[in-house]
Structure formats: C-alpha cells, structure tokens
Amino acid sequence: MKRREFVGGIAVAAGLAGCAKPENDCSVGGGISTETFEWDCVTSWPPKFPGLGMAVENLAERVEQASAGRLKIKVYGGGELVPPFEVFDAVSRGVVEMGHDASYYHKGKVDAAQFFTAIPFGLNSMELNAWVHYGGGLELWRELYEPFNLVPFLCGNTAVQMGGWFNKEINDIDDFKGLKMRIPGFGGEVLRRAGGQPISLPASEIFTSLQTGAIDATEWVGPYNDVSFGLHKAARYYYYPGWQEPGPGLECIINKDAWNSLPADLQAIVEITCQSITTDMAAEYTNGNANSLQQILADPNIELRPFPDKVLQHLKAITAEVVAEIMAADPASKKIGKAFYEYLAKVAANSNISERAFLNTREK
Ligand code: CA
Description:
There is one protein chain. With 364 residues, the protein is of the alpha/beta class. It folds into two domains: 2-160 and 247-286, Bacterial extracellular solute-binding protein, family 7 (D-Maltodextrin-Binding Protein, domain 2, 3-Layer(aba) Sandwich); 161-244 and 301-325, Periplasmic binding protein-like II (D-Maltodextrin-Binding Protein, domain 2). The chain contains twelve helices and eleven strands. The strands form two sheets. A six-stranded mixed beta sheet has the order 7-6-8-5-9-11. It is globular and about 60 Å long. The N and C termini lie far apart (59 Å). Residues 1-29 have low confidence and may be disordered. Bound molecules: calcium ion (CA). Calcium ion (CA) binds at residues 161, 219-221, 245.
C-alpha cells in the first residue's frame, strides 16, 4: 500500500499570486515539490547488521536528511516484513517500494543478475564499480530488470571476501568432496562440481549450522562481518582469498512505479546517496577488516591459511565451464556475460600494472 501524503502547495501557495492555476509554476526555485513520500524497504540482512544492514539504514537516513524529510524510508531486516530471499519479488510486485540485497540471490529466476554481484575470479570492487557506472553495466542491468518492474542501483560493496571458515583442511581439490558448505551463487555451483555440497542459508542461520556441524564450512564476508557473527568460534581454519566473491556489489532495487512517482530532485538524491553508500562501505570495510584481522591473528585457536595454488587453479577451470554453460543456456546471460568478460580483459590489463604491481612492490 502506498502511504503518500499530498501536502503539495498549500503553504507555498499562500501569498503567491496565481498559484491556484495549475499552469503556473509556483514552487520554490521553480521546481522543488513539497510532496512527501513514505517508503518501505525490505532487506536480506539481519536488522542493523554491521556493514550490510547499516548500509541501508544509512541510505534511509541520508535520503531523509538530503530531502529535508520529503522522502522517508523505513528499513526492515530480513524476515521482519518478508523473508530474506523474497526481497526481489516483494519490490517487483509493489508490496514495498524498495529493497536492498545481492543480485546473485536471484539465481534460478534471473540467472544473468549474478554478473552484477560477483563472478568467481571476476571483477574486483573497483572494477565492478567502473563497469557499472562507466563501462555500460548499468544500462544492461536496467534492461535485465525492466520486465520485473524494477530499477536497480549499485549500493555498496564488501570488497574482496575471504575464502571462508572450514572445520576440514583443504590441501587438495579432493578435500572438497562431500564438503557441506554454505556458499551462494556461482561459487556454490563451482563447489558442487568440485564434489562439494553447496547449501543456501540466510545469514541468521549460518553460525548455528557451522557450530552444530550441520555444515562443514561457510563463506560469509570477511574478518569484519565474520567476527561479528562469531564464526571464528565455530571453525578452526580461515582460508583466503575469496575466489568466489572478488568484489560483490550490493543492489538497491526500486519498484518502477514508485521510482517514476518521485520528482527529479528526489530521484537524484536517491541515486547520489546509493553511490555514496558504495564509497562509504569501501572505507568502512577496509577499516573494519583491518581491526578484526588483528583479533583473528591473536587467537591461537584459528589458523589463517591461503588456499593452495593448485586448488585455486582447479576452481578457476570449473568456473570457466560453469560460466560457459550459463551463457549458452540463457540469452540475457550470454549478452551480459560477454560484456562482463570483455570488460574484465580490458580492466585487468590496467589493474595488473597498477594496483597489483604496487601491492607486490610494497610487500617486498
Ligand atoms: Ca560471501
């Protein structure tokens, strides 16, 4: 249900000659509407969860401030209004105006959406941001969501994640055989082909599942979020890097009818605020991960380990197979995947001689 209040014009019109006539533009500054909007926003995150959940709380707060209260957004944690994985449908159907989640949760419904969160061994956070905002990615994303009556925005990125928490050592690709692991999206499919058993779990169930042995391993995000979930108390081995999620973008999705009902200045505020959340999360996660890593390094019960190179090479080969199949099965995935990989080839050439070269040099 829309809860819009039309207070437009009454106070402003007082004392302004001719404002009763609709053909006269009497709004202040020639274009600022006084119409107010109250939106509901559902998310896949535990309420006010550090990073992911707070990003959307910050979004709501900043939009309200920047709009002087003309657009108020009430945020619901996963399960408070709709289940965590039903954000897409709720916003698409107009049950609520806005949602915040990760597009790879829509695997099986809109397979190509996964390219806008993360592809194993794919774009990192800076490169994804570049593709979406400067490399044509946003246009492809908007086109993909058009039939669902949704307008997507990039709104946050956790940066490269960790490989995850394991209660079994991974020394060889065979060690994935029979491994029950919480890992969504493409990464989950790669694990399945490596002999593992990918399991999809909402965030709120991960810790208990790992602690009770219902799963053998889980990836979640990185030190900052993982420690706040207590995952470091439920597994011994903490593997890196997060091959499965090199820079997962989060999405803000808006029902198209709701979006079209906003005046241009409120649309601009929403768009700019989403971009500010992406920038802000990069800083928050860099700082939060650095702090939480100190805690992990000081814990004698945790072994921080790199995946063996041969394991990563094998997972990369499986990834190429999975991507090829998905692109062959679905025209949208073919089109978006082609654009994604063309961009990856181009941007990686630059990343290799800039960020990678610099970081390698700094560590020598
Ligand atoms: Ca993850």
